[in-house]
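Practice problem: ABC transporter ATP-binding protein
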Amino acid sequence: MTTTTPTAGAATGTTGGPAVALRDVSKRYAGERGVLALDGISLDAAPGEFVCLVGASGCGKSTLLNLVSGLDRPTSGTVTVQGDPAFMFQEHALFPWLSALDNVAMPLRLDGVGRRERTLRAREHLAAVHLEEFADRRPHELSGGMRQRVALARTLATKAPVLLMDEPFGALDAMTRDLLHDELESIWRERRLTVLFVTHNVREAVRLGDRVVLLTSRPGRVAAQYPVEIARPRRIEDPDVAALAGEITAELRQEVARHGR
Ligand SMILES: Nc1ncnc2c1ncn2[C@@H]1O[C@H](COP(=O)(O)OP(=O)(O)OP(=O)(O)O)[C@@H](O)[C@H]1O
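Answer key — structure tokens:
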């Protein structure tokens, strides 16, 4: 039986259960070849937990996030989320004709928040990502890193307790990515968000995650899970981060080799 059950409006942690729970979730895409993207995934994220997903290209990471977001439904199994999650992609998907402030205010506007209140709140979210001085700029007047910050601020404006991030920093240079790691980490802690973060970059996963989940090549299954017990604050170049990332990468390589991809 297929059910996707976002318990809309529930706050993180109020029911005492996991913030995100996947139970034996499979996804087969329709079409001639009927690709089986995910096969029997069971995975929880506790309220306030930062979970990173890594795996070979095409193993179903984006599919998994889409199922959690409710954009798509599993073929079988159940997906349960406490509250409506917010989604942030690699492509910032900002409205080009709107200022940074109006982009951030958009979810508030859609929620029916009045102009005065939403401007005030959007300014606070921009300040959280250190962009208060750029409130009036349009996306094309901002750098790639700044645009991703605006996208992050807009995601925060939704007040969603669960944040789904699909390679959000993949296109950024190392320095900008480092800064955004710091900002995301501090916002995550402050707001006690639950984060599901997809990345190709195993070091980034270890830098950010409380736990790293390694998926098998297609069809995606959980191959291994690594609790990250390295004290925060962490830096991506820390030897401990590099060591665990090395271990996970070795396993990932074997996984890719096993499937000849
Ligand atoms: N809408 C769709 N229709 C048919 N097949 C799809 C669809 N979306 C994804 N797929 C297939 O499902 C598999 C998993 O795709 P998905 O994008 O979830 O993988 P991924 O791990 O996020 O990939 P990458 O790391 O390259 O971004 C792939 O083989 C892909 O071609």
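Discussion: Residues 52 and 197 are 5 Å apart (CA to CA). Students who identified this feature from the tokens alone can consider the problem solved.
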